[in-house]
Amino acid sequence: MGFFDHKHEKESPIGNLRAHIGTFMYFVKVGKSKFKNKGRVGEIFADMDNTQYLFQQATSGTMYDMKKKLDYALWDAAVHKYTEDLGELKKELLKAVDEGAETDTDVFEEKEEEVVEQPVQEEEEGDWKAHIKGQMEEAEEKARQEAERKHHEESTPASNKSDDDEHMTEADCRELWRIIQGLEREFREMNEIAEDWFSVHGKKDGCLGALAALALIPAAAFYGIFHIF
Question: What is the rounded distance in angstroms from the CA atom of residue 12 to the CA atom of residue 200?
Fold first, then answer.
């Protein structure tokens, strides 16, 4: 993480806060890596990673003591930003779960239809030869279709097979939920520490407090403006 100091977590409230922010951003980076090809989910994680400097500046301390300052305006802007991001991740997860449920239902219905379309044929006396031949022909046709399907899959270029990369599988949904839970756990801890700090020291804005109004500007634009300062 670079900026966040895990070694001094217990030395001060701000150090403790930075440590939880570091863990929070760790989950963000894991999500950014795992879901980079998953459409909107990957975009949200990338934006969360790009906006971490809000936390850095809010907890940057003073030139006299790095452990004794928390900028309220910037902290409030960061909390607002990441609250929205967590909400968006939950929406995307619910959307993926619903889409997965519909797909599973479709597959189940197709399998049921296949079973219904294969009624049990009663053998009539004197027709057993035709019955056996019919079954043999049916088995040969299924084998031919299966061979064609495998040949088609093997001959399909890898680039075409990756067209559905954005589809969220069951494993993706479970992993995303695990990451969201970790993010929310750290987020709650961070907010509790910050609220305790403000209850003692007051909610005073620092010299960078004016930048809080820019918190909702797209991360890339804000990052460029920030470097001007």
Answer: 14
Helix then strand then coil, in percent of the chain rounded to 5, is: 75, 0, 25
Tokens of 135: 């079954």
CB of 168 closer than 8 Å to CB of 38: yes
Per residue in 127-140, pLDDT (tens digit) is: 767 777 778 888 88
Write out pLDDT tens, residues 17-72.
Answer: 999 999 999 999 999 999 999 999 999 999 999 999 999 889 886 555 555 678 89
CA-CA-CA-CA torsion for 59, 189, 44, 213, nearest 10 degrees? Answer: -40
Reported as half-sphere exposure (CB side, CA atoms, 13 A), residue 3 has a value of: 19
CA proximity to 51, closest of 20, 23, 74: 74
DSSP label at residue 66: T
CA distance 58 to 54: 6
Q: Residue 51: name the closest of 197, 203, 192, 212 by CA.
A: 212
Burial class (CB within 10 angstroms; exposed 0-12, middle 13-18, buried 19+) of 180:
middle
